[in-house]
Write the structure tokens for this entry.
Amino acid sequence: MLFLALVLAFLLHGNIRAKGFYRVAFFIPNVTSMVAMAIVFGSVFSDGFGLVNAALRAVGADPVGWLSSYWGIKVTIAVMVIWRWTGYNAIIYLAGLQSISTELYDAAKVDGANTWQIFTRITIPMLRPVILFTVITSTIGGLGLFTEPQILFNGQAVGGPDEAGMTIVLYQYDQAFNQFDFGYGSAIAWVLFFFSVVFAVINWRLLSERDGLKTPRRLRTTKGVRA
């Protein structure tokens, strides 16, 4: 999702026509009602009359149980999440791209760099602080995934058939408000908070050290002596 958002932001940052229209179009899924999204995706990925299975039958392939098989449910939920949040992250990346000096791109083009080299050698290194932010927020959002599987399988077993769509927060909800085990549900919430903090710290250390955001100890000592 983040890689796709980064590519979209890079393309929107270029000189293309109807740039404003595309920006609005990619952001619309993020403000769309989740209930409407669940209804649409439930129809598109329906086992019996879904558009995806209709397309598979048209090319001679066997239909897939998107809402009844273990991996089909996971793919459906993943597509919903990607469709909803890709545009949101693309707008964040686009804001970061606009802060990069155009002189870097002009110099790279003069030196003969192609689009891929500009993207990998200039855009990604300059956007590492923004990438750090989106990685942390997306990781925490993934750990706290609840709305998509809950609405998609509303009225059915929690998490769908064989609990294939069960997430940590959905499991916490089931234990606390369906099984009325509030102590266990509270414990799950604390464990989720702990894992969110751990993932955030890991992502921060990995990206900040690679980007050089962390001041070397020798440099800090030298500054202290000079002060």
